Amino acid sequence: MNNSWGAVIVAAGKGTRMGYAESKQFLLLQDKPIFIHTLEVFSRVSRIKEMIVVTGAADVKRCEEWIHKFGLEAQVRVTAGGSERQDSVYAGLKQLTSDYVLVHDGVRPFVTPELIENCMEAAMEHGAAVLAVPVKDTIKQVNEEGIIMSTPDRRSLWSIQTPQAFRLSALLEAHERAMQEAFLGTDDAMLIERLGKQVKVVEGRYTNIKITTPDDLDYAVFMQKRGE
Ligand SMILES: Nc1ccn([C@@H]2O[C@H](COP(=O)(O)OP(=O)(O)OP(=O)(O)O)[C@@H](O)[C@H]2O)c(=O)n1
Ligand SMILES: C[C@](O)(CO)[C@H](O)COP(=O)(O)O
């Protein structure tokens, strides 16, 4: 069995929760758009041979220009995504020829080569793997009236991050099944789980945040200054 690796970096979201006119993946952290910081981390993992950035159809050209400006054009191709994250991931998967794939949010720039490698190793051992961190808060299930229904045991709760790593053929099949059955997941592992397959959890870092709201951006600026 061959072990070649590709990566899909999704960056086609609208950033509604950020509330800016500009999509958050294009916001500058120091001198670079957030998605370029992310690509630079992935470009340091030598086993990844092909990378696809998925962006909005109207943003393909400027995305390519940024990639060129930062000298990543030999490693990275750009394609257009869809209206849901899942559609964007699928659009990226179809461009790959590798045996394995890492799927990562373009707006998680504080991932590290070491975390990516850990996820890759676990996927090669278990078939599928995701980065995650144990939840720090007590989590409650709350009904529509705002009343607590239950308190799950925190020891079994993990906050799931990206990258998420899979055999490319398995993830393509899972996406196609989800599409046929009109199932929309919030991550890729869900699509594999619903086919009864196992996904290994690999401990990530709390700093591997997804930049989602303006306070995340403040934290990102702080982390950049700290040299993360
Ligand atoms: N149709 C979509 C939606 C999301 N994403 C990407 O998926 C990642 C995680 O999504 P999220 O943080 O939800 O991004 P947005 O969809 O941009 O944010 P929001 O939900 O606030 O609009 C981001 O890198 C985003 O660009 C994507 O490629 N295609
Ligand atoms: C894939 C993900 O980043 C894992 O935490 C997350 O599920 C994406 O969700 P969102 O609704 O696109 O923020």
TrEMBL record:
Q: What is its EC number?
A: 2.7.7.60
Note the Pfam families from the entry: IspD (PF01128)
Q: Which top-level enzyme class is recorded in the Swiss-Prot or TrEMBL entry?
A: transferase
For site (Transition state stabilizer), what residue positions does UniProt give? R17, K24
Which reaction is this enzyme known to catalyze? 2-C-methyl-D-erythritol 4-phosphate + CTP + H(+) = 4-CDP-2-C-methyl-D-erythritol + diphosphate
Q: In which pathway does it act?
A: Isoprenoid biosynthesis; isopentenyl diphosphate biosynthesis via DXP pathway; isopentenyl diphosphate from 1-deoxy-D-xylulose 5-phosphate: step 2/6
Transmembrane segment boundaries:
none
Tell me which residues are marked as the site Positions MEP for the nucleophilic attack: R154, K210
Does the keyword Phosphoprotein feature in the UniProt annotation? no
Q: Which UniProt keywords apply?
A: Isoprene biosynthesis, Nucleotidyltransferase, Transferase
Instruction: Note the superkingdom of the native organism.
Output: Bacteria
Q: Does the keyword Nucleus apply?
A: no
InterPro entries reported in the protein's UniProt record: IspD, IspD/TarI, IspD/TarI_cytidylyltransf_bact, ISPD_synthase_CS, Nucleotide-diphossugar_trans
Q: Which GO terms describe its molecular function?
A: 2-C-methyl-D-erythritol 4-phosphate cytidylyltransferase activity
| Family statement | Belongs to the IspD/TarI cytidylyltransferase family. IspD subfamily.
Q: What is the purpose of this protein?
A: Catalyzes the formation of 4-diphosphocytidyl-2-C-methyl-D-erythritol from CTP and 2-C-methyl-D-erythritol 4-phosphate (MEP).
Return the protein name: 2-C-methyl-D-erythritol 4-phosphate cytidylyltransferase
What gene does the UniProt entry assign to this protein? ispD
